[in-house]
Amino acid sequence: MLEISELRKRFAGGPDAPGGKVALDGISFAVRPGEMYGFVGANGAGKTTTMRIVMGVLQADSGTVTWQGRPLGYDDRQRFGYMPEERGLYQKMRAGEQIEYFGRLHGLDAQAAKRATDDLLERLGLTERRNDAVQALSLGNQQRVQLAVALVHDPEVLVLDEPFSGLDPIAVDALATALQERCRGGVPVIFSSHQLELVERLCDSVGIVSAGRMVATGTVSDLRAAEGDTLRVVVRNPAPGWADGLPGDVTVNGDRHTLRTTDGDDQEILRRAVKAGHVEHFGVEQPTLTEIFKEAVA
């Protein structure tokens, strides 16, 4: 298990911030084997700083990062797969050659590096682009090469900073499938993303960070349960004032009135709705991750 505990980091100040900037203020979470963990937050919330500390690119002012119960060290990080937000590919090198090169840097022999590269090129739909220079590839294909570089040495942990940024749906599916395969093999995967619908679809657990603090963390189902369910009632052509006195908020879209509430007697609400007009929908809904995120960072 990868555990991050009470990470704190302050960057030195400048003319506009003489006291410095607090980037992390006690970030803690854990990613278990075979778990996909979504790390979400606004720009500047602390996601990239956390990942850089995990990978040893930055040093925390305090706090710990442990892997399998011991402090994370250089040798451990060599067995991690890392995809930075700022892509680190050699633009004039051919795609296949590049993946093999990084495999060799991670200690694979020439034959193993080629074998792993062939497999990844096929899995990520890049076989026909093997001999293309990276700079000639589309953004989506460059992202696939970057992911292949992170995967080529069969890492024990994957740490991916905005891996789905700017990708079309086909490329998103290709990357998502590759990550799910690694998870099924027991690899902990942590990735940051602004695409909350994608995080909700892929992730077992989620951490929401705001201003350097973890404001919510847990499984998607637990976070939903903590927010509570919402009753949604859609009535077409209702009588005026039909929802007066009922809890919740009513929105109007043409001849459809939608009541959303977390309180009240659902049977009484249903009776009022049926009496008022044609009920098109009556049901309890769980909050989306987007709604949970907005509530958590408010």
Automatic annotation (TrEMBL):
It is a peripheral membrane protein. InterPro entries: AAA+_ATPase, ABC_transporter-like_ATP-bd, ABC_transporter-like_CS, ABC_transporter_ATP-binding, DrrA1/2-like_C, P-loop_NTPase. SMART domains: AAA. Residues 2-236 form the ABC transporter domain. GO terms for cellular component: plasma membrane. Its main location: membrane. The keyword ATP-binding applies. It comes from the Bacteria. GO terms for biological process: response to antibiotic. The keyword Nucleotide-binding applies. Keywords: Antibiotic resistance, ATP-binding, Nucleotide-binding, Transport. It holds the Pfam family DrrA1-3_C. GO terms for molecular function: ATP binding; ATP hydrolysis activity. It is found in: Cell membrane. Transmembrane segments: none annotated. SUPFAM superfamilies: P-loop containing nucleoside triphosphate hydrolases. Belongs to the ABC transporter superfamily. PANTHER family: ABC TRANSPORTER ATP-BINDING PROTEIN (PTHR42711), ABC TRANSPORTER ATP-BINDING PROTEIN NATA (PTHR42711:SF5). This is ABC-2 type transport system ATP-binding protein.
